[in-house]
Specification:
Helix 1 crosses helix 2. It is built from 5 helices and 9 strands; from the N terminus they run E-E-H-H-E-E-E-H-E-H-E-E-H-E. 27% of the residues are buried. The termini are far apart. With 205 residues, it is of the alpha+beta class. Helices cover 26% and strands 27% of the residues.
């Protein structure tokens, strides 16, 4: 079964269900929550239903998937999400209701998901953040991820140029591995001077 339910001190991480449509609507409609994410905020409950069916129902039909609703113990109502792609980037991402920012919830949820990934034999995870959203990078570092390189992408569907920082954590003990998918895909790529950890050698495009 993909997306097994996980428990932490404060949280339950579980699958989204159709009963969560109102919570999905509240999470994905907030302009500030979705400011640094590629999609536009949704505007209607019908859009929430379409998003649920496309992003979650289809994932849960797959053999393996990691798309979690973050819920606080006590009410089991989704307040955010953690996703990990099963493509070769194993991209880690999250979103959280604005009123619950800066309480360590995304970090607590992320650590639980990473433990599940390790149990399942996932070799590594990556994550990216807009350089204008450095707090996201702080979450990545608290999850044990290390900066590797930066690159420029014309982000869709919002259609503007973004500089992303790419972080990575290897879960299988191979500390030499660097995921170079974004480095190879985007012509403008570089290691930022002054970042605490740097990528010593990246091949050209």
């Amino acid at each position: 079964m993909n997306t097994p339910t996980l428990h932490t001190e404060r949280l339950i991480l579980r699958r989204f269900t159709e009963e969560d449509l109102e919570a999905i609507y509240q999470i994905y409609r907030d302009e500030e929550v979705n400011r640094f994410l590629p999609w536009f905020p949704i505007k209607t409950m019908e859009e929430a239903r379409q998003l649920y069916e496309k992003k979650y129902v289809q994932c849960y039909r797959e053999e393996r998937g990691y798309r979690y609703a973050i819920c606080q113990k006590g009410d089991n109502r989704p307040i955010g999400y953690v996703h990990v792609s099963t493509e070769d980037s194993y991209d880690f991402g999250y979103g959280l209701c604005r009123e619950l920012w800066h309480k360590g919830i995304a970090t607590e949820a992320g650590k639980a998901v990473i433990r599940q990934l390790q149990r399942d034999g996932i070799p590594y995870i990556t994550a990216t953040h807009d350089i204008n959203n450095p707090r996201s990078g702080q979450v990545m570092r608290r999850l044990g991820m290390r900066y590797q390189y930066s690159y420029e992408e014309l982000w869709q569907p919002k259609d503007f140029l973004v500089t992303f920082r790419m972080y990575q954590r290897n879960l299988d003990g191979d500390d030499s591995r660097v995921y170079r998918g974004y480095w190879n895909q985007y012509p403008v790529h570089f290691v930022e001077e002054g970042m605490h950890e740097t990528l010593e050698a990246c091949p050209g495009s």
